[in-house]
């Protein structure tokens, strides 16, 4: 079983909980996810199954989007509402601060990971150390806030739409906003609305996947998967014939001049077999060779239709076409 399925992670589950459940439903241990969500958070969690796990660290778009709720005038040890209160403040954050925060925290910046996080220091998870009452020095990491826009702002509460780079801690961003205002702040709710190419419309609840499994076993779950090359639909294809496919699978370097390209440019290609399977993501070297950047070698690919002229894949039971009203509590931007 190989492919990608987006799960709508509900509150109370850890990302590892979701992976553990999906391992049982997919009948394989070879499963990864596309970015940790805290237990109190909900939203888009891409799950990579089988050979698709090779794509986890090779996604062309690793940006994320969130809807975050916050409260000013309080801080906690976890930087969210589930933690122990450290301080409170009577400072009232005025609406004029909305525009200051939007400008101050947009763009490239350094962020220090919170102690309650999965970051490892000397082989230990920070949250394990934090639970022991130990605090260690953490290196600030570069992040980018592509956009920050407040939907609501008043009565020391706010809701913001945030687009950011991989590795951004939203609760730390909110904590830093609280420092900027002098009142302190904590995150009170968080929904990831997009992860890379995947949005809320692509998501299945765990209950839906369990229902498919109970109805038809792992074969029914497999029908819910999207092929790996969904991630790379914006890349042109390098089309191999049957002989080139065999040679490429055997690790032979191919002469790019003998390969049929969908279009030529200076960038990465989807290297496709004679059966239109994704073999690898590759590039043409200065020597004129077709070089693999990341190989997949999907032996039994997920269901894949012929590409349309608009290059918009339409998969059987594609979640984009589903009624998403069942995702209660989710507000779409």
Overview of this protein structure:
By secondary structure, the protein is of the alpha+beta class. It has three domains: 3-62 and 197-226, Pseudouridine synthase, CATH 3.30.2350; 64-187, 2-Layer Sandwich (Pseudouridine synthase), CATH 3.30.2350; 229-295, Archaeosine Trna-guanine Transglycosylase, Chain: A, domain 4 (Roll), CATH 2.30.130. Helix content is 19%, strand content 32%. It contains six helices and 20 strands. Strands 1, 2, 3, 4, 7, 10, 11, 12, 13 and 14 form a ten-stranded mixed β-sheet that branches. A six-stranded mixed β-sheet has the order 16-20-19-18-15-17. It has a two-stranded antiparallel sheet with strand order 5-6. Strand 12 (185-195) and strand 13 form a beta hairpin. Helix 1 runs parallel beside helix 5. The chain is elongated. The two termini are 33 Å apart.
For this structure, what is the CATH class of the largest domain? Alpha Beta
Largest sheet: 10 strands, mixed
Question: Roughly how many Å apart are the termini?
Answer: 33 Å
Poorly predicted residue ranges: 298-333
- Tally of helical runs: 6
What do we call the CATH topology of the largest domain? Pseudouridine synthase
Question: Average pLDDT, to the nearest integer?
Answer: 85
Rg, nearest Å: 22 Å
Beta-strand percentage range: 25-35%
Indicate how many domains the architecture comprises: 3
Search tags:
Archaeosine Trna-guanine Transglycosylase, Chain: A, domain 4, six-stranded mixed sheet, Pseudouridine synthase, alpha+beta, 3 domains, disordered C terminus, elongated, single chain, ten-stranded mixed sheet, 333 residues
């Amino acid at each position: 079983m190989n492919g990608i399925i987006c799960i709508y992670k509900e509150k109370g589950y850890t990302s590892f909980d979701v992976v553990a459940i999906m391992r049982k439903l997919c009948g394989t241990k070879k499963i990864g996810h596309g970015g940790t969500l805290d237990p109190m958070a909900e939203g888009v969690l891409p799950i990579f199954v089988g050979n698709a796990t090779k794509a986890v660290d090779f996604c062309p778009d690793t940006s994320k989007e969130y809807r975050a709720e916050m409260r000013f005038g309080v801080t906690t040890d976890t930087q969210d509402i589930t933690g122990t209160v450290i301080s409170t403040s009577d400072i009232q954050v005025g609406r004029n601060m909305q525009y200051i925060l939007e400008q101050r925290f947009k763009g490239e910046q350094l962020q220090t990971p919170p102690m309650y996080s999965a970051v490892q220091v000397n082989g230990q998870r920070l949250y394990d150390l934090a639970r022991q009452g130990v605090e260690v020095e953490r290196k600030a990491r570069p992040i980018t806030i592509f956009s920050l826009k407040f939907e609501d702002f008043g009565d020391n509460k706010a809701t913001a739409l945030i687009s950011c780079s991989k590795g951004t801690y939203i609760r730390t961003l909110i904590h830093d906003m609280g420092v900027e205002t002098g009142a302190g702040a904590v995150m009170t709710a968080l929904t990831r609305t997009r992860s890379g190419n995947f949005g809320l419309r692509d998501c299945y609840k765990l209950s839906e996947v369990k229902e498919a499994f109970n109805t038809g076993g792992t074969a029914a779950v497999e029908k819910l998967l999207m092929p790996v090359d969904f991630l790379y639909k914006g890349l042109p294809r390098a089309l191999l014939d049957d002989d080139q496919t065999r040679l490429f699978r055997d690790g032979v370097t191919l002469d790019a001049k003998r390969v049929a390209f969908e279009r030529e440019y200076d960038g990465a290609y989807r290297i496709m077999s004679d059966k239109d399977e994704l073999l690898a993501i590759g590039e043409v070297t200065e020597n004129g060779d077709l070089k693999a950047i990341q190989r997949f070698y999907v032996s039994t690919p997920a269901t894949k239709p012929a590409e349309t002229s608009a290059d918009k894949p339409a998969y059987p039971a594609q979640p984009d076409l589903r009624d998403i009203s069942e995702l209660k509590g989710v507000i779409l931007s």
